[in-house]
TrEMBL record:
<keyword id="KW-0472">Membrane</keyword>
<feature type="domain" description="Thioredoxin-like fold">
    <location>
        <begin position="94"/>
        <end position="260"/>
    </location>
</feature>
<dbReference type="InterPro" id="IPR012336">
    <property type="entry name" value="Thioredoxin-like_fold"/>
</dbReference>
<protein>
    <recommendedName>
        <fullName>Thioredoxin-like fold domain-containing protein</fullName>
    </recommendedName>
</protein>
<dbReference type="Pfam" id="PF13462">
    <property type="entry name" value="Thioredoxin_4"/>
</dbReference>
<feature type="region of interest" description="Disordered">
    <location>
        <begin position="229"/>
        <end position="255"/>
    </location>
</feature>
<feature type="transmembrane region" description="Helical">
    <location>
        <begin position="33"/>
        <end position="56"/>
    </location>
</feature>
<keyword id="KW-0812">Transmembrane</keyword>
<dbReference type="InterPro" id="IPR036249">
    <property type="entry name" value="Thioredoxin-like_sf"/>
</dbReference>
<keyword id="KW-1133">Transmembrane helix</keyword>
């Protein structure tokens, strides 16, 4: 309607009506904005709560539950070896002999030199299941090269990708053990040792290019933490965890492993 044809009172009423319409439209827009804003805040809050809950739940998990493990590993970061020496195998009903080892540890090398053949013989005859626990407590002894961690991760990689070569790889790592206070071996050199021990070329390539370290260094660190915090594994004299640590059917064995026949006698005693 033409405003000029309206009376002053009609124009005033029309202006009031238009103002009311504008106010109502603005109020409706404001309500929509508030609803959208509140909805977005609720969604954002729900996301934040979910993230916090996830982080808290992850933080409550044991370290080993937060990392990828070799498919052949045990729940306590061990690599079991049965008669064939393949990772993930066991000898049914046999005594379990676990060896906590660090590939940079010279005393571990001495233990393997003196007892490696005994362990192989007992395992191959079905008398024991040998369980390797590669840990990394001596990274500080490899001039910043993290040899202990990388070597243990390589062992985990072999256990996962070439389990049949596990026993031979473990033996080869000690036969070729580097000295403390040296960088140890590069990934390329560890891969060469793996190939010589019968690890397939494609698996060795994963060690060579750092895939083993990327895949399982977290598992090594978590296993090391688990062992270090286990009071049952600590030396009763020093009160700390060290390598080599030997357990027989889950009990720490403090016998004189440098004495000829001592380990075998302990296994026989455990057989009852």
């Amino acid at each position: 309607m033409n405003q000029q044809n309206l009376s002053k009172a009609q124009r005033r009423e029309a202006a009031i009506a238009e103002a009311a319409r504008v106010r109502d439209a603005q109020a409706a827009r404001d309500r929509r904005v508030r609803i959208i804003t509140i909805s977005a805040l609720v969604v954002a809050l729900a996301v934040v709560v979910a993230i916090v809950v996830f982080i808290m739940n992850e933080g409550d998990k044991p370290a080993l539950d937060r990392v990828d493990a070799p498919a052949t590993a045990t729940a306590d970061a061990g690599i079991p070896l049965g008669e064939s020496g393949a990772a993930g195998t066991t000898n049914e009903g046999a005594v379990e002999v676990a060896v906590y080892l660090d590939y940079m540890c010279p005393v571990c090398g001495q233990f393997e030199e003196l007892n490696g053949e005994t362990l192989d013989s007992l395992r191959e005859s079905g008398d024991i299941t040998e369980v390797l626990h590669p840990v990394s407590i001596l990274d500080r002894m490899s001039s910043g090269a993290r040899f202990s961690t990388r070597a243990a991760a390589a062992a985990a990689f072999v256990a996962d990708r070439a389990p049949e070569a596990m026993a031979d790889f473990n033996d080869a790592m000690f036969v070729n053990q580097p000295e403390e206070n040296t960088p140890g071996y590069t990934d390329d050199q560890i891969a060469d040792i793996a190939v010589a021990a019968g690890v397939p070329d494609d698996v060795a390539e994963g060690i060579r290019n750092g895939d083993a370290d990327s895949a399982f260094s977290g598992w090594v660190e978590a296993g090391t933490e688990l062992a270090s915090d286990d009071d049952a594994l600590k030396n009763p004299q020093s009160g700390g965890f060290g390598t080599p640590t030997i357990t027989i059917d889950g009990e720490r064995w403090d016998g004189n492993w440098s004495e000829d026949g001592a380990l075998e006698a302990a296994v026989t005693a455990a057989q009852g």
